[in-house]
Amino acid sequence: MTSYIDVPTKTLVTPTNKTFAYREIGVSSEVPVIGLIHLSGNLDNWDPTVIDGLAQEHHLILPDYQGVGGSGGKAAPTIQGMAKEIREFIHALGFKQIDLFGFSMGGFVAQEVINQEPTLIRRALLTGTGPRGGQGIRNVTKISDKSLAKAIFTFTDVKTYLFFTRTNNGKHEAAEFLKRIKTRQTNRDRSIGWPAYRTQLKAINQWGSEQPIDFSKLEIPVLVANGDHDAMVPTKPNSYDLAKAFPNSKLVIYPDAGHAGVFQFSADFVKQANQFLK
C-alpha cells in the first residue's frame, strides 16, 4: 500500500461550488473514516504512522477545512460552520454513513457533525479534545499565542510546546513526531494563512464559552483518547467529561503524554482504533 506521505492530493467541488482539497488512502470500504485535523492544521499535519496504520484496515479520507491549504473559500467563523461544511463535503462524495476521527479542534468539529446529523455517523474517534464549553477551552488562544511567541524566540516548531510534555521523554517524542510529519518532500500542502488561523482561534474561543451538547440519547460508539497532561484541552476534566457524555464510550489515557498522546503512542492507538472501528 502507498504510504500517506506519497498519496496525491485530490480536489472536490460541491454542488454549492465549494472546493475541498483532500487525500485518500486505505482499503475499500462502504463506510470511510473521515479525518478532521487540529487548529491551523493542513493535510501534512497528520502523523503518517497513524494514518498508514489505520489505512491497513480502513478507508481514510482527510480533507482540508475551507480557507485552509488547498481548499477554497474562507475559514468558517464558528465550529458549527466548519461542521456544516464538512457534512457538505461528505455528502458530495456520496456517502450515507461514515466513521469520524477528530483530533483537537477536529474533535470539536466532529462533535458538531454528530450533533447536526447523528444518523450520518457509525462510530467516532475523539482524540486530544473535549466537550463544548469544557474547562479551559476558552484559553486556547492565550496558550497558543504564548507558545507561538516562545517557539519563534527559540526557533522551534510550536507543536513541541503545545502537543507534548516537557519531560525528557516528551521532548524526544516531540522531535520524532516532527520528523515524521516533515517526511513528505514533494507536493506539500499550503500552510494556513494568518487570517484563517485567527478566525479558527476565535471560533474555538466562542465554542468553549457555549453550553455542552446533550449526547445522552445517542448510542453511537465513541472512543475518547488523550495524553494525561494535555496543555491545550486539559485532560481532567475534559477527556473524562467527554467520555461520560456518550452512553456508549471507551476512554484511553496515555501516560507522560500531552495533547498529541495518540501520535506519541501511535502503535497502541492504531491497534485500539482499528479494533474499535470494527
UniProtKB/TrEMBL annotation:
Pfam families given in the database record: Abhydrolase_1
The entry's keywords: Hydrolase
Positions of the AB hydrolase-1 domain: 40-263
GO molecular-function term, one example from the UniProt record: hydrolase activity
Entry superkingdom: Bacteria
Protein name: Alpha/beta fold hydrolase
Organism: Levilactobacillus tongjiangensis
